[in-house]
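Fill in residues.
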């Protein structure tokens, strides 16, 4: 076997590509590469553990908030059902009261009509009595009938 002579190591790819580029552009590319490398999020092990613990704590808080929201939603749903049933009960009660008022109103109207008729009849009798009283004053002697079984009055009275 024949040994080959050692090969020369190729210059780094960056150096070769930079050599091909115009000088101002190469400097900009190098500056951007340096900026990108400095922005990589390298943190220490302990800082990473802290961040992981924070993430776990935040996830726990989120889950706790979700559970609270579920409980609150369930309580709100129960309250809504209770209010709906109360509304239905009140609506039925109101409808019954309205129906009672309608029937009572009709009965009251009949009673009121009867009372008005009675008042009209009594007014008529009162007018007749006044008319008879005026006629009696005009003739001088009132015509008063004695009740049955009453004693007779003397003639000179």
């Amino acid at each position: 076997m024949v040994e080959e002579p050692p090969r020369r190591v190729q210059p780094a790819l960056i150096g070769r590509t930079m050599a091909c580029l115009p000088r101002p552009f190469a400097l900009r590319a190098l500056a951007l590469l340096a900026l990108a490398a400095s922005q990589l999020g390298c943190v220490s092990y302990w800082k990473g553990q802290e961040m992981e613990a924070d993430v776990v704590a935040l996830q726990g808080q989120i889950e706790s908030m979700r559970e609270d929201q579920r409980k609150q939603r369930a309580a709100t749903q129960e309250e809504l059902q209770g209010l709906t049933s109360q509304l239905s009960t009140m609506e039925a009660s109101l409808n019954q009261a309205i129906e009672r008022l309608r029937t009572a109103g009709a009965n009251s109207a009949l009673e009121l009509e009867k009372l008005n008729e009675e008042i009209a009849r009594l007014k008529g009798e009162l007018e007749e009595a006044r008319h008879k009283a005026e006629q009696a004053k005009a003739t001088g002697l009132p015509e008063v009938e004695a009740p049955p079984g009453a004693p007779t009055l003397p003639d000179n009275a």
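The two ends are 183 Å apart (CA to CA).
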